[in-house]
């Protein structure tokens, strides 16, 4: 599709799924404010999806239960997707890859977190993990969050687990033999993840690493939802040109992988 031009520059036509939500409403404002993007439509329900026909890219901030159906629809209509919605484990990413095999030229970017500092926090945790005996993740979010653990915590645990495996790390020490259900959190790839839901908070995470006589805590805080918008707009600008049909994480767009 040929982009149209404003003041000599190509303009990217953008649709937003979840447009009335906490994140989607920020995306609508960011797309309307940027010089090189134009809002085609904001959509709040599956039966309104036709309103984004003609968009180059759709940004999805909806719900883990509906995002796969949205992606199926977007891919079948040849529209690139920038996905912020959480809930993507390896099985889901594989399903997206399968859908895209039928749609050459369509790309999907799935970013567990669009905050640049959050991406750095994940990257630092991955780098540090092999140097420590123990790594656990604590995520803290607003109480209206639909899922637990957060997509960011899930992804961090995946990255930490993979880094430990590559390094041949021994299993983490844990002598617990008696526990109340849930007291040790959930396990993702062998990494413990603990989820807190606290009024007044937005999105926060600590990765706690420890070895003999030393601990390291890597903490990230999102103070507002505007902070995600530079990452979202970067995704919108770059998704069509990504070298792979499915990209997970903003890292390659930031030169981190
Ligand atoms: N990657 C990142 O950086 C970030 C990711 N997120 C993730 O984004 C997702 C949304 O979060 P948040 O904005 O707080 O949630 P909200 O509940 O505030 O917003 C979701 C919106 O999506 C709407 N919706 C539901 N189904 C559809 C559909 N089929 N098509 C279009 N819209 C639909 C909902 O409408 P209704 O209420 O009527 O159902 C609601 O308005 C979550 O998975 C969250 O974890 C959040 C922040 C940052
Ligand atoms: O629901 C949220 O708020 C957030 N969701 C994402 C996640 O699940 O990791 C990103 C960020 O933590 C905010």
UniProtKB/TrEMBL annotation:
SUPFAM superfamilies attached to this UniProt entry: Glyceraldehyde-3-phosphate dehydrogenase-like, C-terminal domain (SSF55347), NAD(P)-binding Rossmann-fold domains (SSF51735)
Pathway connected to this protein: Amino-acid biosynthesis; L-lysine biosynthesis via DAP pathway; (S)-tetrahydrodipicolinate from L-aspartate: step 4/4
PANTHER family: 4-HYDROXY-TETRAHYDRODIPICOLINATE REDUCTASE 1, CHLOROPLASTIC-RELATED, DIHYDRODIPICOLINATE REDUCTASE
Protein name, UniProt field: 4-hydroxy-tetrahydrodipicolinate reductase
Positions annotated to bind NAD(+): 18-23, 48, 84-86, 111-114
GO biological process entries: diaminopimelate biosynthetic process; lysine biosynthetic process via diaminopimelate
Keywords: Amino-acid biosynthesis, Cytoplasm, Diaminopimelate biosynthesis, Lysine biosynthesis, NAD, NADP, Oxidoreductase
EC code(s) of this entry: 1.17.1.8
Originating organism: Marinactinospora thermotolerans DSM 45154
Record bears the keyword Disulfide bond: no
First-tier enzyme category under EC: oxidoreductase
Catalysis performed (reactions): (S)-2,3,4,5-tetrahydrodipicolinate + NAD(+) + H2O = (2S,4S)-4-hydroxy-2,3,4,5-tetrahydrodipicolinate + NADH + H(+); (S)-2,3,4,5-tetrahydrodipicolinate + NADP(+) + H2O = (2S,4S)-4-hydroxy-2,3,4,5-tetrahydrodipicolinate + NADPH + H(+)
Gene that encodes it: dapB
Annotated (S)-2,3,4,5-tetrahydrodipicolinate binding sites: 142, 151-152
Residues at which NADP(+) binds: 49
Protein role: Catalyzes the conversion of 4-hydroxy-tetrahydrodipicolinate (HTPA) to tetrahydrodipicolinate.
Listed NCBIfam families: dapB
Keyword rRNA-binding set for record: no
Active site: residue positions: 141 (proton donor/acceptor), 145 (proton donor)
Membership in a protein family: Belongs to the DapB family.
Main localization of the protein described in the UniProt heading: cytoplasm
GO cellular component: cytosol
InterPro entries recorded: DapB_C (IPR022663), DapB_N (IPR000846), DapB_N_CS (IPR022664), DHDPR_bac (IPR023940), NAD(P)-bd_dom_sf (IPR036291)
């Amino acid at each position: 599709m040929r982009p149209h031009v404003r003041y000599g520059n190509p303009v990217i036509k953008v649709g937003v799924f979840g447009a009335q939500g906490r994140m989607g409403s920020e995306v609508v404002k960011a797309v309307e404010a940027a010089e090189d993007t134009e809002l085609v439509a904001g959509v709040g329900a599956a039966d309104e999806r036709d309103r984004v026909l003609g968009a180059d890219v759709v940004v999805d901030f909806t719900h883990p239960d509906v995002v796969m159906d949205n992606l199926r629809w977007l891919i079948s209509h040849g529209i690139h997707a920038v996905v912020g919605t959480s809930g993507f484990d390896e099985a889901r990413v594989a399903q997206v890859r399968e859908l895209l095999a039928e749609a050459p030229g369509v790309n999907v970017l799935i970013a567990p977190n669009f905050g640049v500092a959050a991406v750095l926090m994940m990257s630092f945790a991955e780098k540090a993990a092999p140097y420590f005996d123990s790594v656990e993740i604590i995520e803290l979010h607003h109480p209206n969050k639909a899922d637990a653990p957060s997509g960011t915590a899930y992804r961090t645990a995946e990255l930490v687990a993979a880094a430990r495996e590559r390094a041949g790390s021994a299993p983490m020490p844990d002598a617990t033999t008696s526990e109340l259900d849930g007291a040790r959190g959930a396990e993702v790839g062998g990494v413990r993840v603990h989820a807190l839901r606290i009024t007044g908070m937005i999105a926060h995470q600590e990765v706690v690493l420890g070895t003999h006589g030393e601990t390291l805590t890597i903490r990230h805080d999102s103070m507002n939802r505007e902070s995600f918008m530079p990452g979202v707009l970067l995704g919108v600008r770059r998704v069509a040109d990504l070298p792979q049909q499915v990209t997970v994480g903003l890292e390659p767009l930031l030169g981190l992988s």
